[in-house]
Specification:
By secondary structure, the chain is mainly α. The chain has three helices and no strands. It has a single domain, classed as Up-down Bundle (Methane Monooxygenase Hydroxylase, Chain G, domain 1). It is elongated.
Amino acid sequence: MTTVASRNGHGSGECSPPSRTGTPQRTARGYASGKEDYLTRLRKVEGQLRGLQKMIEAGTWCPDVVTQVASATRALQEVAVGLLSDHLRHCVVHAMHSSEAEGGLALDEVTGTIRQVVRL
């Protein structure tokens, strides 16, 4: 079972953050089962962004461009919410089952992530 303690160098596992030492770490993530869905969504957003570039190049009316920017932004926000949900359901639940202290650390981490998202 993976725990938050692994983040502090006490083991390794699928819920630990990536290595900051420059050594690539191949681990499964909480979103691994929905990875293709996330990639599909992100490819659609990528297409929207290319479309926005073409709209600007073509001199499209500003409100129409802004509407499309808002659409792409919402699509990215949906991806972020889905990833957070998967992380809560997978990694945080595992940490909570491991110990109260590790569960608290995992919740603190998620709270920090939510703060970053809310600061948009």
